[in-house]
Amino acid sequence: MFRSTQQMAAECRSRHSVCGGFALAALAVSVLSGCGRSVKLGEVEGTVRLDGQPIGQVLVVFIPEDSQGPQSTGITDGEGRFKLRCNNARSGAVVGPHRVTLLDAAVAPGGRSRDDEPEEGAARPTSRVPDVYSRADKTPLRQLVAAGTQSVTIDISSDRKPG
Question: Domain tally for the chain?
């Protein structure tokens, strides 16, 4: 059974001290093909910044343009830093071009899909990350992963509208 990215992010939010384990669990659940030894990976760490400031509790997902490749994920810490991992705990992401999505784990709904209405009387939490960055089909974020070790900075703007 597959869980939504929002459900996995909610787990991270509720388990602040095990966000690294969350990223590993997210990979194990969401990736159909593994990051086996035959898949060439590049080590990727980086920082996510919103309007120039580091942002914590953001799920970072690298989705290979080659749909056969496995995704890699990481969660930003309080200083916006993350390190990507594949589903078998290997560090890194598949070498090649990727689409990058970001999900605000601090406000992800627990156990509900994005389209569900909030519970009666409850206000819908507002994501710090604009929706355009959380959708694989809309994100303008792209990153080329090379062999070896690399550090990336992902800068996003709070006023970015879907388009």
Answer: 1
The answer to the question of residue 94 being in a domain is yes
For the cut 50, the answer to whether the pLDDT of residue 29 exceeds it is: no
Dist CA 67 CA 81 (whole Å):
26
* Contact yes or no for 45/83 (Cβ under 8 A): yes
Q: What is the pLDDT of residue 156?
A: 96
Higher-confidence residue: 80 or 9? 80
pTM over 0.90: no
Position 67 scores a pLDDT of 84
Question: Are the CB atoms for 64 and 50 separated by under 8 Å?
Answer: no
pLDDT of res. 145: 97
In a domain, 64, yes or no: yes
CATH of the domain at 82: 2.60.40.10
The beta-carbon contacts of 13-16 under 8 Å, at least 24 apart in sequence, are: 13/57, 13/105, 13/106, 13/107, 13/108, 13/110, 14/110
**Where in the sequence is the domain holding 149, given as residue range(s)?**
5-156
